Amino acid sequence: MIALLTAVSVLAGSCLAGAPLFGERSVARAAAEEINGHAFLTENSAYRLYLNEEDLSVVVEDKATGSFMESSISYDDEKSNFIWLGAMRSAIVLTMINLNSDTTQADLINDENTKKVTKTANGFTAEIYWTKFKIGLTLEVTLTEDGLVARVPEESIREDGTQYFIGTLRIYPFMGCSYLDDKAGYMLVPDGNGALIYLDNKEGRFSSGFSGTIYGTDIGFEESKAETLLWDRYNTITGSETVYAPVFGIAHTEDEIAFLGIVEEGEERCSIDVMPNGVSVDYNRAYARFVLRRMYNQPTSANSTSGSLRVYEDDRSHSDLQVRFLFLSGSQASYAGMAAAYRDYLLKNGQVKSSVDTSYRTRVDFLGTDRENWLLSTTAVVMTTVSDVEEIYEDLRQNGVSGLLSTYKGWQKGGLYDLPINSYKADRKIGGTAALTRLIKDAESAGNQLYLYNNLLPVNPDEQNATFNTIKMVNKKRYEKTTHAEVYETFMYLTPARAQYLLKKFVTGYTKKGVSNLALAGMTDTLYTYYYSGEKHTRFETAQTFEDAVSAVSQDVNLIMETPCAYLWKYTDAFLDMPLYTSSYIIEDESVPFLSLVLKGVVPMYGEYVNFEANKQEFLLKMIESGVYPSFYVTKQDASELIYTNSSDIYSSQYDAFRDTIVSYDAILREVSEKTKGASIINHTIFENGTRLVEYDNGTKICLNYSESAQTVDGITLDAMSYAIR
Q: How far apart are CA 716 and CA 726, in angstroms?
């Protein structure tokens, strides 16, 4: 008996010392000498890194499972030309600007180059120089505990010649690529809230893929485009969604390996490109494309109609360029796993607040006044006064709806489009400054949160002096935004420095009145390159100025933001107008609430206005699925009063028509929120029968049925277009 107990004790001790317990992965297998022409380079506790020194391509292997991803193609499809083969194998691919002819490609296979590869503690550095182009740079690759970091330092980039210059730069553009339908899985597209492109054989149906500029298009370069207008006034085409976060990804689901790419440096001048097979080559790929120089139209004379030349920027952008690849395995090798990894990344790096109140609130916004033409001037169209807001609050309270979040638009003297807002002065038509101040304080006492809405970028030249402090595009033409609206047809944009000054001035005057709730728009989702006072300023400078401005005022006010880009998330107490859909590109196979999965339980998210959604039941299910709170835009007066104003697109807003909907949505979504309060989403599953399953880390499950017939999900039978909470 003593001997038996001793043996059991020794066995138990060896298990505790490091052998895997039941349910854990098996012990990592031994390293191979090479994988697909890549020699073993280094490893850590989770991954191994293999390198091909000819083209600097790499293989990242998961030590626990043996699954791996390559940054280049494993075999030639025998259809691609030498240019594409060079791009598919090279770690760095440049688009070169040739001043004597068209652009050309520079890669590590087809173009003569020298490389000095040096092994480091956790990876390697490679000093590369293309002798023909007289272009050089250094690639730094580091294996981390959660994946791989690839970086090109700004100071290493050399352009020594006078004929060739760098246009764009891609780092490992074929990381995780797959041929036709050889791999099961998908690519993550950062379109709106999120989308997937499956790795099935597209059979050559698509000639182009997804390409979205991180943080939106650059208005400093974008010329006005021909629009499809109804009656020469109403835009009939919805614009594409913004890329709010610098991410992309690929999952090989059967191999149980995936990566989430995060552009950590240089994202202000970078696009995310996601290309399904059949777009130029039969490979699926997703990557970051850094733009160092852009082409634009330069007018040949002061008369812009007389012609223009296509020219490139004289100077390239200056920034370190860095992409982090977070690798995931097992059950985490999915878009839900990518979202969880990104959430952890944001929290770890302080890029979101860790102590935001995420309690449920229904959002009810108000429109104060707008303007319509009257004889030789304009006159106020009053839609919702301070006393009207008080009445609506009280009516909702009596109907069981309290604890609201609201923004008040068009509160300022001169109405909604008297921009920019120079000071805290409320329009007398809604009750004046004193009444508005009292309303904000009384709302807070009643448990509601009322924020004043302020968009600090546009300048209305019909109401304010736009001669100074407004931007020009890179071609030195003044930037003008055309609205095709009834009263104010054109707006200009402030310089970032002026917007920063006005924001500080407004907040100083606002807080002196004892109120401090601000809803910020404009600078939250707009970046641009611009000319001012004879000098060119980059998107990097614009982003830095906007961040400095927001960071400063966030210390003095309770700040919420309308569609903020990721670099500003750490300053906001709420994300307003979270998109629940994508741009609906034909290449996208499925929409997924990726951003919502990331931010649920971290930052409260409010959807776009329910008023303007055609299918309100589907929209309700989308909010339940993604953990997004509802938003309504209401007025005391009927929306028909706005028909001759710039707000003529608001076709349904009268509070009396939406009271019952607000009350019912509040009850439904408040119940869902109580079940998921403080929890994060850990899994999200899409089934072929039109159902979805959302799982939270507190054990709550939400089953949804988007189909037109009854379906069963997770053991529960759901009626058409319905949901259930477990």
A: 9
453: its two tokens = 């809405």
d(Cα 281, Cα 165) in Å, to the nearest integer?
Answer: 26
Strands, DSSP E only, in 404-457? 405-409, 449-455
Exposed e or buried b per residue across 141-159, where buried means at least 16 C-beta atoms within 10 angstroms of its C-beta: bbbbebbbbbbbbeebbeb
Average pLDDT, the chain: 92
Per DSSP, the chain holds a count of helices (H) and strands (E) of 10, 48
- Give the whole-angstrom CA distance, residue 255 versus residue 68: 8
**What is the DSSP annotation of 299-345?**
ESSSSGGG-EEEEE-SS-----EEEEEEEEEGGGSSHHHHHHHHHHH
Burial call 183-202: b when 16+ CB within 10 Å, e when fewer: bebbbbbbbbbbbbbbbbbb
Token pair, residue 666, equals 């509040």
pLDDT tens digit string along 99-150? 877 778 999 999 999 999 999 999 999 999 999 999 999 999 999 999 999 9
Question: Which residues are CB-contacts of 571 (< 8 A; sequence separation ≥ 6)?
Answer: 353, 547, 550, 551, 554, 559, 561, 564
What are the backbone dihedrals phi and psi of residue 58, each rounded to the nearest 5 degrees, phi first? -135, 160
Separation in Å, CA 617 to CA 366, 583, 664: 23, 20, 12
CATH code of 34-207+237-348, in short, is 2.70.98
Residue 165 CA to chain centroid, in angstroms? Answer: 30
Are β-strands 517-521 and 558-562 bridged in parallel, bridged antiparallel, or unpaired? parallel
Report the DSSP pairing between strands 629-634 and 363-367: parallel
CA dist 311 and 269 (Å) reads 18
Please, which pLDDT band fits residue 585 given cuts at 50, 70 and 90?
very high
Tokens of 9: 């004790």
626/580 Cα distance (integer angstroms):
8
Query: Rounded to an integer, what distance in angstroms lies between the CA atom of residue 682 and that of residue 496?
Result: 39
d(CA 267, CA 246): 7
Local structure of 279: helix, strand or coil:
coil
What pLDDT score does 144 carry?
A: 97
Please report the pLDDT score of residue 78 as a whole number.
72
Classify 542 in phi/psi space as left (phi over 0), alpha (psi -120 to 50) or beta.
alpha
- pLDDT score at 3: 42
In angstroms, rounded to a whole number, what is the distance separating the alpha carbons of residues 303 and 288? Answer: 38
The mean pLDDT value for 455-475 works out to 94
Residue 494, φ and ψ in degrees, nearest 5:
-75, 155
